[in-house]
Amino acid sequence: MKLLVTGGAGFVGATVTRLLLDAGHEVVVLDDLSRNDAAQVPADATFVQARVQEVGDVLTPDAGFDGVLHFAGLISAGESMTHPELHWEANTRAGLNLLDAMRTAGVKRLIFSSTAACYGEPSELPLTERAITMPINTYGATKLAVDLAIASEARAHKLAAVSLRYFNVAGALVREDGGMIGERHDPETHLIPIALEVAAGKREKLPMFGDDYPTPDGTCIRDYIHVADLAEAHLLALTAAVPGEHKIYNLGSGTGFSNAQVIDAVRTVTGHPVPVEWLPRRPGDPASLYASSALAQADLGWTPTRTSLEAIVADAWAFYQGR
Ligand code: UFG
């Protein structure tokens, strides 16, 4: 297939681009490089530096695209509470713009990076796709709005669409030839890469947001999914998309680890101390999130295999040291 990947310079987008190219697809990456450089865009993809708001210049009726994988967007839940307008613009307005451009160009297949943040404070654990969607941060709200728009688009205009609701994506794509694709956001806001920076001596302390959550050790619980497992689900979703249907799948490992357990894993893997500075809760953080991915496993035939927290942290550490 000829595929457009928005956000293909980012951690997940670049990893999926690598797998798509390896599977024989032709890929055009569109990224505005506002939060990344182009260093991780695979060299055998065509790269266009542009905002999603300008996607119509690339996604023309004559360009012959078979589908779009839409990764571009802002991902920091913390930032979405302090700068919500940035998230409504980059996630929702851009997402609606993409749907318009796809309709105009007659491109009928979409895989969308949705998020566990759509569920807010979970109505059930593990979270299934039937759980109530009531986001408690703006990030989740901006992504849920696009999910709802995609559902209408599929119904009315026969789009074949799959939303993949990611839990906490981590690790790195470590390839046999030594090539690696990993997480390097600017600014970095995610727990594991920040903890690695502390372990490497690049930061003094890990700011730990909250010790009074209703969890066994008082820190938040999250479900870490290895980026290579997550990426494989996108290739399966591409072939599972059906015209007129919007399918939604949760993608997680199914196990929750507390923030304190993550820091312990970083200490073990790196062999370095990770001093912690205890701070108040970060606004918009649910106490506990972990997935049931039973539906993705049944429908897509997807099975996450890299589920050990230490193995996930080890790949992230290998990338951190090699970058
Ligand atoms: N945390 C800290 N200190 C930090 C960074 C994070 O204590 O310096 C804590 C957070 O408060 C939270 C946990 O570590 O309790 C995980 O936070 P992240 O920022 O790493 O990730 P989030 O869970 O907020 O969000 C991530 C992705 C979203 C996705 C969500 C789904 O950024 O895109 O996982 O669970 F939707």
**Number of helices, counting only DSSP H or I runs of 4 residues or more:** 9
Span from first to last CA?
Answer: 31 Å
What best-fitting shape do the alpha-carbon axes yield? globular
pLDDT average, as an integer?
A: 96
Helix content: 25-40%
Provide the CATH topology of the largest domain: Rossmann fold
Number of domains: 2
Q: Which cofactor or ligand species appear?
A: uridine-5'-diphosphate-4-deoxy-4-fluoro-alpha-D-galactose
Q: From the alpha carbons, calculate the radius of gyration and give it in angstroms.
A: 19 Å
CATH superfamily of the largest domain: NAD(P)-binding Rossmann-like Domain
Family: Belongs to the NAD(P)-dependent epimerase/dehydratase family.
Pathway: Carbohydrate metabolism; galactose metabolism
EC number: 5.1.3.2
Keywords: Carbohydrate metabolism, Isomerase, NAD
Structural descriptors:
single chain, 323 residues, alpha/beta, Rossmann fold, UDP-galactose 4-epimerase, domain 1, 2 domains, 7-stranded parallel beta sheet, two-stranded parallel sheet, 36% helix, binds uridine-5'-diphosphate-4-deoxy-4-fluoro-alpha-D-galactose
